[in-house]
Design goal:
This protein has no helices and eleven strands. By secondary structure, the protein is mostly beta strands.
Length: 114
Protein backbone atom coordinates (compact mmCIF):
# COMPACT_ATOMS: atom_id res chain seq x y z
CA UNK A 1 0.00 0.00 0.00
CA UNK A 2 1.22 3.47 -0.87
CA UNK A 3 1.40 5.78 2.12
CA UNK A 4 1.88 9.52 2.29
CA UNK A 5 2.65 10.98 5.70
CA UNK A 6 2.64 14.72 6.25
CA UNK A 7 4.54 16.54 8.98
CA UNK A 8 5.72 20.02 9.87
CA UNK A 9 2.42 21.68 10.69
CA UNK A 10 1.97 23.83 13.76
CA UNK A 11 0.86 27.18 15.14
CA UNK A 12 2.66 30.33 14.05
CA UNK A 13 2.00 34.06 14.20
CA UNK A 14 1.05 35.94 11.06
CA UNK A 15 4.13 36.61 8.98
CA UNK A 16 5.79 33.44 10.15
CA UNK A 17 7.03 30.45 8.17
CA UNK A 18 6.57 26.71 8.16
CA UNK A 19 7.95 23.89 6.06
CA UNK A 20 5.66 20.95 5.46
CA UNK A 21 7.04 17.56 4.47
CA UNK A 22 5.33 14.57 2.92
CA UNK A 23 7.16 11.28 3.17
CA UNK A 24 6.12 8.73 0.56
CA UNK A 25 6.37 4.97 0.83
CA UNK A 26 6.88 4.69 -2.92
CA UNK A 27 9.28 6.27 -5.34
CA UNK A 28 8.21 9.85 -5.92
CA UNK A 29 9.68 9.83 -9.40
CA UNK A 30 7.10 7.21 -10.39
CA UNK A 31 4.30 9.76 -10.12
CA UNK A 32 3.59 12.31 -12.78
CA UNK A 33 2.24 14.76 -10.26
CA UNK A 34 2.39 15.51 -6.58
CA UNK A 35 0.70 18.32 -4.78
CA UNK A 36 -0.57 20.01 -1.66
CA UNK A 37 -4.18 20.73 -0.85
CA UNK A 38 -5.81 22.38 2.13
CA UNK A 39 -9.19 22.49 3.76
CA UNK A 40 -10.33 25.02 6.30
CA UNK A 41 -13.33 24.39 8.58
CA UNK A 42 -16.58 24.91 6.71
CA UNK A 43 -14.81 25.31 3.38
CA UNK A 44 -14.16 23.06 0.42
CA UNK A 45 -10.78 21.50 -0.15
CA UNK A 46 -8.64 23.59 -2.47
CA UNK A 47 -5.45 22.99 -4.39
CA UNK A 48 -2.47 24.93 -3.10
CA UNK A 49 0.46 23.83 -5.24
CA UNK A 50 1.52 20.98 -7.46
CA UNK A 51 4.68 19.78 -9.11
CA UNK A 52 4.94 17.63 -12.21
CA UNK A 53 7.56 15.01 -13.04
CA UNK A 54 9.22 17.41 -15.48
CA UNK A 55 9.62 20.00 -12.75
CA UNK A 56 6.81 22.33 -13.77
CA UNK A 57 4.91 23.85 -10.89
CA UNK A 58 1.52 25.40 -10.34
CA UNK A 59 0.34 27.58 -7.45
CA UNK A 60 -3.00 28.91 -6.38
CA UNK A 61 -3.17 32.68 -6.77
CA UNK A 62 -3.62 33.06 -3.03
CA UNK A 63 -0.18 31.59 -2.29
CA UNK A 64 1.90 32.71 -5.28
CA UNK A 65 5.11 34.36 -4.19
CA UNK A 66 4.77 33.03 -0.64
CA UNK A 67 4.76 29.22 -0.99
CA UNK A 68 7.26 27.01 -2.77
CA UNK A 69 6.71 23.36 -3.63
CA UNK A 70 9.65 21.03 -4.17
CA UNK A 71 10.51 17.37 -3.97
CA UNK A 72 13.56 15.26 -3.25
CA UNK A 73 13.30 12.03 -5.25
CA UNK A 74 16.28 10.57 -3.41
CA UNK A 75 14.38 10.93 -0.14
CA UNK A 76 10.93 10.24 -1.61
CA UNK A 77 9.75 13.41 0.04
CA UNK A 78 7.60 16.33 -1.06
CA UNK A 79 7.93 19.74 0.59
CA UNK A 80 5.94 22.93 0.89
CA UNK A 81 7.84 25.96 2.10
CA UNK A 82 5.36 28.53 3.41
CA UNK A 83 6.43 32.09 4.12
CA UNK A 84 4.59 35.28 5.07
CA UNK A 85 1.78 33.19 6.47
CA UNK A 86 -1.61 34.80 6.91
CA UNK A 87 -4.53 33.84 9.17
CA UNK A 88 -6.44 32.78 6.04
CA UNK A 89 -3.78 30.09 5.47
CA UNK A 90 -5.12 28.27 8.52
CA UNK A 91 -6.26 24.82 7.41
CA UNK A 92 -5.51 21.13 7.37
CA UNK A 93 -2.90 20.55 4.69
CA UNK A 94 -2.81 17.34 2.70
CA UNK A 95 -0.31 15.98 0.24
CA UNK A 96 -1.40 13.90 -2.71
CA UNK A 97 0.18 12.03 -5.59
CA UNK A 98 -0.77 10.22 -8.73
CA UNK A 99 -0.11 9.54 -12.36
CA UNK A 100 -3.01 11.23 -14.15
CA UNK A 101 -5.15 12.22 -11.20
CA UNK A 102 -4.37 12.48 -7.51
CA UNK A 103 -4.88 8.88 -6.41
CA UNK A 104 -3.04 8.75 -3.11
CA UNK A 105 -3.66 11.05 -0.17
CA UNK A 106 -2.11 11.64 3.20
CA UNK A 107 -4.05 12.20 6.41
CA UNK A 108 -3.04 15.81 6.77
CA UNK A 109 -1.16 18.16 9.06
CA UNK A 110 -2.74 21.16 10.76
CA UNK A 111 -1.46 24.68 10.12
CA UNK A 112 -2.78 27.46 12.34
CA UNK A 113 -1.83 31.10 11.79
CA UNK A 114 -2.89 33.63 14.39
Amino acid sequence: DVQLVESGGGSVPAGGSLRLSCAASAYTYSWNLMGWFRQAPGKEREGVARIYSDGRTWYADSVKGRFTISKDNAKNTLYLEMNSLKPEDTAMYYCAAGTVVFTYWGKGTQVTVS
